[in-house]
Specification:
It is built from 28 helices and 21 strands. It is of the alpha/beta class. The protein folds into four domains: 113 residues, Calcium-transporting ATPase, cytoplasmic transduction domain A (Distorted Sandwich); 275 residues, Calcium-transporting ATPase, transmembrane domain; 161 residues, HAD superfamily/HAD-like (Rossmann fold); 145 residues, 3-Layer(aba) Sandwich (Calcium-transporting ATPase, cytoplasmic domain N). The strands form three sheets. The protein has an eight-stranded mixed beta sheet, sandwiched between helices. Strands 1, 2, 3, 4, 5, 6 and 7 form a seven-stranded antiparallel beta sheet that branches. It has a six-stranded antiparallel beta sheet with strand order 10-15-14-13-12-11, sandwiched between helices. It is found in: Cell membrane. This is HAD family hydrolase.
């Protein structure tokens, strides 16, 4: 080993000049610029900004207050996603420990990024391999490659074998020649496809965007027609420009346009998603994309990675089975097992035994140990000689059994029986005094007698069983997708009751079909898939998509990144590889699987309540379209100002909707949000639009106004009152049942809205007036008639559809 010189300084500089250094451009998360761009440049912002600019041109800035929603909505999205990004970046810092390379014939320490191609690199126990390489010499090195392959068992490496960046050295050490660095490494190539950023599908946002796209088609011509109709009422363009009446024409046109846009719904959606994300953050659950909150509510298929989800990645000792051939007591066996595994650097299995026996033998003096042969992955056994002359051998059953002279058939049958359950089985044998070989003889004494088998398994998470039970009750089908042996994984899945009391059905991924449609057919009868390659995990997600499922996928390794990217909702553990956390929508910071029910429940609460209150906003869109069309066709003055809409919306839509959206609700979300909301909103909007147009037409005749323009303020006062009354009626309808806090909420906003008209500052800003004289009676009469119209339309629609989807 000493004759290996490694690279010289000049060779290192040559490789640095050729950029053959271990620097990767892989991003840990979206950039701040990307987050700002995606939140600023939206269709909604474009429409509202254009309308606001039109109003500001007229100088009526008070009628442009609706534009504040752009600032608030954009700020919420940026703040929440940037906060998540900064948290994720802290979680995703790569191991910054120094690495040892041999250069100029001596070992030197360098940073991760300073490793170059062809470097001779030491990899040591406990370290993460920083670059791909080929083993030159090994000292019993074993690697955990589960981050790359999903296979949790350690892999022994020998000279000539490849090692990959991202794997972890479990034991031993090795000298390797670096064969790939930076973006050329296996782990980076594996995640290359996962780097492409895609937004999370949102049923709510899809519905809102459909409305916005439809509005784009009608907004421009409608705005032009409204301006034309209002200019015509002002005496034509020449007169309007001369008198300044064009300003009011533009303001009134914008009043119609703004009413068409459900800006409050866009804001409330962002705000509720953000609040849900903040609440989850307090439970160490990081939501990287706000839309992911909605996806949480829709999940009906959950693919689980075994390691880190069902198990914690460690090993636990389950049992010590004393054999019939044993000729010492169970206590002697237990004590001997403590001694033989009490090494200076125990491997994971020995550590599991130590953890299990520490309470019983933790104070046992190691002075009883005379000599020791430590565990070696090459031998696959260890031994200890005690002061009483006994030698105890602990190791792999097939290795120990093959060295013994006694009949080991019963032993191996016993071992096989336990191995079929997915357990890791080892044998403890003993040589009696006088029959043991010299202490320096690294062979197993053939006369040794098997005393016990030690049954170990992967350490199951304490929260796994309860969490899986919750998902079953909620109708979410959970499957385990793992790189491990399917029989082993199925045994663990049975322990945590993946399928209740039934044994999970399993298969080897090598038997999977090649097309998503055929895979989907197979998966219907399968609960556990083992030996899965990264591309197959992605194929399984595609298969479930082909059947219309909303799929969530958990993972922690680089091998999971593609599947997490393909899933509707990628969930990464906090100790996951940086690339995996970067593509996931949700990161469980403390890696606790038990957080998932809270995550899903929070999503369901937001979505079920958002569906309830979305109707409030779309009622405004519906009646604004009807009123705008009626104004153009009938040649009417627009019945209210943009600031009136802001005021009414505050008390009958925005604020109460926000409070209703925070109410407890665990109903599972079902696609079809827009259809159900329209069923509730359109009839109410139709009744409201008809009522306001009827009021605008009839009031001048009832009160005998010959020139409507002279009484425009009074007419708008009556129309605003009608709109407010119908808004409160709709709020009461949505808030049912009213025999709870919801009834008090409706009453509060009804009183607060009326009270605002009596406060001079508020009344002056929003141009609110109290009806006087005959207008009082006309207002009350029209309000009562409008309620009757609203109730009649609602009754007819419900009779036709025999359906009420708000509850």
């Amino acid at each position: 080993m000493n004759n290996i010189i490694g690279l010289t300084d000049s060779e290192v500089q040559e490789r640095i000049a050729r950029s053959q250094v271990n620097i990767s451009q892989t991003k840990t998360s979206r950039s701040i610029a990307d987050i700002i761009r995606s939140n600023v440049f939206t269709l909604f912002n474009g429409i509202i900004l254009a309308a606001m600019v039109l109003v500001l041109i007229t100088g009526e800035w008070k009628d442009a207050v609706f534009g504040v929603v752009i600032i608030i909505n954009t700020a919420i999205g940026i703040f929440t996603e940037v906060k998540s990004k900064l948290t994720l970046d802290k979680l995703s810092i790569l191991i910054s420990a120094k690495h040892t390379v041999r250069r100029n014939g001596i070992d030197v320490e360098v940073d991760h990024d300073d490793i170059v191609l062809d470097d001779v690199l030491w990899i040591k126990s406990g370290e993460q391999v920083p670059a791909d390489g080929q083993v030159i010499e090994d000292n019993g090195v074993e690697l955990d490659e589960s981050m790359l392959t999903g296979e949790s068992r350690t892999v022994k490496k020998q000279p000539g074998d490849e090692v990959y960046s991202g794997s972890t050295v479990v034991s031993g050490s090795a000298l390797v020649k670096v064969t790939a660095v930076g973006s050329q490494s296996y782990a980076v190539k594996l995640t290359e496809e996962a780097k492409i950023y895609t937004t999370t599908h949102s049923d709510i946002n899809d519905g809102i965007n459909k409305i916005l796209r439809f509005m784009i088609i009608i907004v421009i011509p409608m705005c032009a027609l409204l301006i034309w109709s209002q200019i015509r009422l002002a005496g034509g363009w020449e007169s309007a420009l001369a008198t300044g009446a064009w300003r009011q024409a533009v303001v009134q046109a914008v009043a119609g346009i703004v009413g068409l846009i459900p800006e409050g719904l866009v804001l409330l959606t962002s705000l509720n998603f953000a609040l849900a994300a903040l609440r989850l953050a307090r439970q160490n659950t990081l939501v990287q994309e706000l839309n992911a909150v909605e996806t949480l509510a829709r999940v009906d298929a959950l693919n689980l990675d075994k390691t880190g989800t069902l198990t914690d990645g460690g090993i636990a000792m389950d049992d010590i089975v004393v054999l019939d051939s044993a000729d010492v007591s169970a206590d002697d066996i237990s004590r001997a097992l403590w001694h033989v595994t009490h090494e200076e650097s125990p491997n994971p299995t020995a550590q599991a035994v130590q953890n299990a026996l520490s309470a019983q033998w933790g104070e046992e003096s190691i002075a009883e140990v005379v000599s020791r042969i430590p565990f070696s992955s090459a031998r696959k056994w260890s031994s200890v000689d005690l002061v009483n002359g006994q030698r105890w051998i602990f190791g792999a059953p097939e290795i120990v059994a093959s060295a013994l002279s006694v009949d080991t058939t019963p032993l191996m049958n016993n071992v096989q029986e336990h191995a079929l359950t997915g357990a890791r089985v080892l044998v403890l044998a003993m040589s009696m005094p006088g029959k043991i070989s010299p202490a320096d003889d690294e062979t197993i004494d053939a006369s040794a007698i098997p005393q016990a088998i030690i049954v170990c398994s992967e350490s199951v998470r304490s929260d796994a069983q309860a969490t899986l039970s919750w998902f079953r009750e909620q109708g979410v089908r959970a499957r385990v997708i793992s790189g491990d042996n399917p029989r082993t994984v199925a045994a663990i899945a049975h322990k945590v009751k993946l399928t209740g009391e039934d044994m999970p059905r399993y298969m080897d991924a090598r038997d999977l079909p090649q097309t998503p449609e055929k895979v989907a057919e197979v998966l219907e009868e399968i609960d556990v898939v083992g030996r899965v390659l990264p591309a197959q995990k992605k194929l399984i997600v595609q298969a479930l998509h082909s059947q219309g499922h909303t799929v969530a996928m958990t993972g922690d390794g680089v091998n999971d990144a593609l599947a997490l990217k393909e899933a509707d909702l990628g969930i990464a553990m906090g100790n996951a590889a940086p690339a995996t956390k970067a593509v996931a929508q949700v990161v469980l910071v403390d890696s606790l699987f038990s957080h998932l029910p809270d995550v899903v429940a929070r999503g369901r609460q937001v979505m079920a309540n958002m569906e309830r209150v979305a109707s409030l906003f779309l009622v405004k869109t519906t009646y604004s379209a009807i009123i705008s069309l009626g104004v153009v066709l009938l040649g009417l003055n627009f019945p209210y100002l943009p600031r009136h809409m802001t005021y009414i919306g505050w008390f009958t839509i925005g604020t109460p909707a926000f409070l209703l959206a925070l109410a407890p609700n665990t109903r599972r979300y079902i696609p079809g949000f827009l259809k159900r909301v329209i069923h509730v909103a359109v009839p109410a909007g139709l009744a409201t639009g008809i009522s306001v147009l009827a009021s605008t037409l009839c009031v001048p005749m009832i009160l005998g106004w010959s020139d409507v323009s002279e009484h425009l303020t009074e007419l708008r006062t009556i129309n605003v009152a009608v709109l407010f009354v119908l808004g409160i009626v709709m709020l009461a309808w949505i808030s049912r049942p009213l025999n709870s806090w919801r009834g008090w909420l409706v009453a509060f906003f009804a009183v607060a809205g009326i009270a605002g008209a009596f406060i001079p500052v508020v009344a002056n800003f929003f141009q609110l007036h109290i009806p006087t004289g005959n207008s009082i009676y006309v207002t009350l009469c029209l309000a009562a008639c409008s309620i009757i119209v609203w109730a009649a339309v609602r009754f007819i629609v419900d009779r036709i559809f025999l359906n009420d989807n708000v509850e």
